[in-house]
């Protein structure tokens, strides 16, 4: 956001506050499962013009599914449980500008379920070998900590 040339004249602190406010609004709307009319009313109360409200609501509707996944991971009643993991190696040969890159990455898919409501959509992400090694190391540390805690 700070590198956007259209926003270069705005104080970076103000931009950060605006970004935090927008993120909080989106998160709260997701937590409350607010519909577009409720969000629109709230934004009208904040004196936003109709064009910006429509644009916000359109983008919010596009991201509702992803937002529900994020909200359920972070504030659900019970945490999601990973039931299976699958992965595959992806090898990028060229980037968008047709420059040769030769970058391997891993596409990881976590199958998850919640004890409250059954299954959830899979969670997928892409990572480099270093990021995957870091994740595996952290999971091993967590498993060791859990093992030590159950032995006490």
UniProtKB/TrEMBL annotation:
This is COMM domain-containing protein 3. Residues 81-150 form the COMM domain. It holds the Pfam family COMM_domain. It comes from the Eukaryota. Belongs to the COMM domain-containing protein 3 family. Transmembrane segments: none annotated. One of its GO terms (biological process) is sodium ion transport. InterPro entries: COMM, COMMD3. PROSITE patterns: COMM. Signal peptide: none annotated.
């Amino acid at each position: 956001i700070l590198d956007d040339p259209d926003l270069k004249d705005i104080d970076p602190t103000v931009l950060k506050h605006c970004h935090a406010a927008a993120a909080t609004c989106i998160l709260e709307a997701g937590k409350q499962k607010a519909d577009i009319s409720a969000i629109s009313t709230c934004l009208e109360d904040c004196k936003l013009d109709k064009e910006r409200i429509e644009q916000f609501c359109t983008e919010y509707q596009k991201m509702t599914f992803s937002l529900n996944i994020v909200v359920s991971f972070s504030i659900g009643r019970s945490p999601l449980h990973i039931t299976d993991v699958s992965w595959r190696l992806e090898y990028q040969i060229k980037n968008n500008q047709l420059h040769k890159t030769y970058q391997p990455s891993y596409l990881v898919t976590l199958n998850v379920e919640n004890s409250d409501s059954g299954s959830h959509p899979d969670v997928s992400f892409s990572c480099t070998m270093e990021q995957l090694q870091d994740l595996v190391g952290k999971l091993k540390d967590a498993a060791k900590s859990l093992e030590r805690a159950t032995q006490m």
